[in-house]
Design goal:
With about 500 residues, the chain is mostly beta strands. Helix content is about 15%, strand content about 40%.
Length: about 500
């Protein structure tokens, strides 16, 4: 398998290897989309079908293929709990399938009977949005399967949509080239009219939420006909509207970029292109890690598994490739017919939300110089890596840095840069020591390992008893963002609970 290695230097701690483990060849026409749940992989095609595979061994489920659409299927997506799969088609419908039986749960007819090009669930499972060829958007109340609101952008085709991790906003992209941010009342909060020349093809929010004082920020990746992958910061305060700032423009592919997807921890970003390649980036800094060359025609879709180190890519060559991302800490088992498949230990490691840098399980004072370099890269301070290396700054030295030492000893002349470093160091000092417990397993309210994790409307997971008590005594504000929770609905996070159980039993 030809894999072009692009990446050098201290960044090698982030990723060790990407390898092809199997190729699925069931579809009879172009593969348009692929998506993972915690245990399944679904793919859809111009052949009018959706196929569903188990991620244990990538065998097709007994009820697959799903045949309910009259025309080609453009997009499919799992509900966050994995219980349902939604698919949309040129036949102007979005079909909801039950994943325990493969039967049709509901058929949502798009108003105006226009071909539906894209659909997406909100992380809290409350909403399903679908976009059509006539520029209209339909926001569905998913629990009741009823149409809630409509929106529209005239003279264009909706081809991309994604919800923020808090489920309160969503982004859309169209063939006109614009990116728009909407709230649940279908109010347009921002329009970036020329985000991509000749048209947007896909967009996806990072699962991370960032908060700075009263400002809440999200990262959005978008790609388009201009052969570029862009990363934007979406900022929102308590006032109406939001701001959108371009932070990275990635040109690692030489033709139209058709799809993009974030990993579950937001650390990696993958994209598929008409140049037949799959590109893997370090998401925070936009560093190209690998270019994967295995498809024979355009790569139309790509997706990360939420529970295992897997990437899927679909193509107009009628195949779906499944790739395994190695961090160098675990081996892999040999599957049927010589396929290399993810073993349970590897899956459990990544279900635990393991961060790529090796310093994540150490106290700061124990960090090596390489760990400090990794931290600088994560925090967007890559310009200081060489300076810190040259001065042998390890974890203990990092904690002792002051405004004076940054200026006189390390010769960092920028006042703003010195202030940012000191602020980040203070955040490290204030962070609780996890004693090896993955941060994702700790409830943000109690700081204890969760036993019954649930997802709230802000997109964060909490211990059920703790968040219920918070809602009852602290009004309906998010413990993490301070914004009002649009709903008190709590969704069981079965994937996280399974990962916690596996990690606990291994200790």
């Amino acid at each position: 398998m030809p894999v072009e290695r692009i990446w050098r230097g201290t960044r090698q701690c982030l990723l060790k290897m990407v390898s092809l483990i199997c190729t699925l060849q069931s579809h009879r026409d172009d593969v348009n989309w692929c998506t993972f749940s915690s245990s399944l992989l679904a793919t859809c095609s111009a052949d009018k079908t959706i196929r569903v595979y188990s991620t244990q061994d990538f065998t097709e489920l007994p009820f697959s293929p799903l045949s309910g659409h009259g025309y080609g299927v453009h997009c499919c997506c799992f509900s966050p709990c994995g219980q349902y799969l939604a698919s949309c088609s040129t036949d102007a419908t979005t079909v909801v399938w039950a994943m325990d039986t493969g039967e049709i749960e509901a058929v949502l007819e798009h108003p105006g009977r226009s071909p539906v090009r894209v659909c997406a669930f909100s992380p809290d499972s409350s909403w399903l949005v679908s976009g059509a060829s006539d520029g209209t958007l339909a926001l569905w109340d998913f629990p009741s399967r009823t149409l809630c609101r409509m929106g529209a952008v005239p003279d264009t085709t909706m081809v991309a949509c994604s919800f923020t991790p808090c489920s309160q906003l969503f982004a859309t992209g169209s063939t006109y080239g614009d990116l728009r941010i909407w709230d649940l009342n279908m109010n347009q909060l921002h329009a970036e009219k020329y985000a991509h020349d000749l048209g947007v093809t896909c967009c996806q929010f990072s699962p991370q939420i960032m908060k700075y004082g009263h400002v809440v920020q999200f990262r959005l990746a978008s790609c388009g006909q201009d052969s570029l992958l862009k990363i934007w910061i979406i900022s929102r305060t308590s006032s109406p509207g939001c701001k959108m700032q371009l932070v990275h423009t990635l040109s690692g592919q030489c033709a139209t970029v058709l799809s993009c997807a974030y990993s579950t921890d937001g650390q990696l970003l993958v994209s598929g292109s008409m140049d037949k390649t799959v590109a893997v980036y370090e998401a925070n800094n936009g560093i190209l890690l690998y270019t994967l060359n295995q498809h024979e025609r355009y790569v139309t879709s790509c997706a990360f598994s939420p529970t295992a180190p897997l990437i899927a890519s679909g193509s107009m060559d009628k195949t779906v490739n499944v790739w395994r991302v190695e961090d160098g800490s675990s081996g892999h088992a040999s599957g049927p017919k010589g396929k290399s498949l993810p073993n349970e230990a590897a899956s459990a490691s990544h279900e635990a939300g393991k961060k790529w840098p090796g310093h994540s399980r150490l106290t700061v004072s124990e960090w090596s110089e390489d760990d400090v370099s990794s931290w600088l890269l994560e925090e967007g301070l890559e310009s200081l890596v060489d300076t810190f290396k040259a001065n042998n700054i390890d974890g203990a030295e990092l904690l002792s840095l002051s405004k004076e030492s940054l200026s006189s000893d390390l010769h960092i002349e920028s006042l703003g840069l010195r202030s940012k470093v000191l602020r980040k160091i203070e955040e490290l000092k204030m962070a609780p020591v996890s004693n090896g417990i993955p941060d994702e397993f700790l409830c943000p309210i109690t700081h204890e390992i969760m036993k019954d994790p649930v997802i709230a409307a802000d997109g964060y997971s909490y211990e059920r008893e703790a968040i219920e008590s918070w809602i009852n005594t602290k009004s309906r504000s998010s413990p993490m963002t301070n914004l009002t929770l649009q709903t008190t609905l709590l969704t069981p996070n079965r994937t996280l609970k399974m990962a916690i159980c596996r990690w606990t039993s291994s200790q």
